[in-house]
Amino acid sequence: MTIVHRVLFPHPIVDLDEYLARGGGKGLEAARQSGPETLIAELEAAGLRGRGGAGFPTGTKWRTVAANRSSMFPTTVVVNGAEGEPGTFKDRTILRNDPYQVVEGALIAAQAVGANTVIFGLKRSFGEEVARLQSAIDEIVAAGWAQGIEIEVFEGPNEYLYGEETALLETIDGRYPFPRIAPPFRRGVTEVVATVGDTTSGSGLSAHVEMAGAGSDQVAPPTLVDNVETLANVPRIIARGAAWFRTEGTEKSPGTIVCTVTGSTRRHGVGEVQMGTPLREVIEAIGGGPHPGRRIRAVLPGTAQGFITEDQLDTPVSYEAMAAIGSGLGSAGFIVFDDTDDLVAAAAGVSRFLSIESCGQCTPCKQDGLQLAGVMDKLSRSQAGAHDMAILHKRVGTVADGARCYLATQHQNVLSSLLAAYPDEVEAHVAGTATGVTPALIAELVDVDGGQATWDERHREKQPDWTYDAEYSGKVPAERYGEHRAHQTLPE
């Protein structure tokens, strides 16, 4: 059976009583009988990797945050639920299905790293998920599970970069979702002082904060940022042990993963599979396979990695196998394209999305990105000439120069893979033998319901300055909103 049910039960858990009846709470109970070192060691032995996209080992992250605790300020746990990767709907599905396991996992994490606050970062547009999560938190607090740990739900803007972990922390601290240089274990949610000798609070410290090591005078508190799905796995690992977790999955990618399948398939959906399941099987089990009489030509793992080609469809869904074919697992959101789809138009849609969502702190990312999007628009419409193609090849190589986050590399990955894997299709658009089409809509998923995904159609009107004005102001978001004024609201 391809579909499994470790994190996603067959039906939603209605209340805390049902969660307890199904074994909930045992992980937190076990955690409170253990010390932080035991908890972290168990996560390391389990081999759980972050399910937010990068696949970083969770136990290593916890150990790093615990080792860099501040002597003056408490650590914070932030749960990243700001899901916005095109083609991905797993975290919202988990929160709708069973938010209790995520809250329990966050409380275990807080114990492991010495945190007294847990903050859930969601988008304010996630009305159903926010309500479901808040209700679960209220039940858990009333049941006495929090034991002095403050839990809050933060509702942030709809921007894609809000889901980048350092931009998430910036937003929670009252600024705009612009990625930082310093990682969360060096500078957490609240921006305080760099050292005991520096008592000036405020912005502008990102390049100067030193690690908060034991015995040092560093007072900047670190933050543990983990994804919704990552923390949903934690309670059962602590309750049942690392060996149990490793009974499914592969050696390097143990456990299960929640996948989203959309695009040119019989249905759209979200489902949980064992790590190592062939991608073709995942698409069949969750999406029903291609439409009758059609064949799959390509798959995009959101906008994070390059195209997976038809001859790579039997690649196992694992971090190591996806890396071996030059792609990546990302957040396991698979957008499927069949033999009627125009892959140039799909890549043009990705290019537009990423150029719009770039914040502009890194000039190549925004300016080269916008230039790439313009060329891809022309190419999609079969209006690009030799000069345009020269720009495309040049800017693909420069767009990620000096980038402080991964967005520009995503842009590079997708367009490079199009040029390498589908040169004939690209040439057909240049020669005018392919029918010109508008770029495909590649944007955040609004919902997946009844086997049908709904995309954010409004993104077609979004400007590079993150407004929905009729005309582009010419300013990038970092210029337009770069004053770091606290608690300002981005345009809706």
Notes on the protein architecture:
- With 492 residues, the chain is an alpha/beta fold.
- The protein folds into three domains: 230 residues, Rossmann fold (3-Layer(aba) Sandwich); 83 residues, Ubiquitin-like (UB roll); 138 residues, de novo design (two linked rop proteins), CATH 1.20.1440.
- It has 18 helices and eleven strands.
- It has a five-stranded mixed beta sheet with strand order 6-5-9-7-8, with helices on one face.
- Helix 3 packs antiparallel against helix 4, helix 3 packs across helix 6 and helix 13 runs antiparallel to helix 14.
- The longest helix is centred in the C-terminal third of the chain and has 18 residues.
- The radius of gyration is 22 Å and the shape is globular.
- It starts with 15 loop residues before the first helix and ends in a 12-residue tail after the last helix.
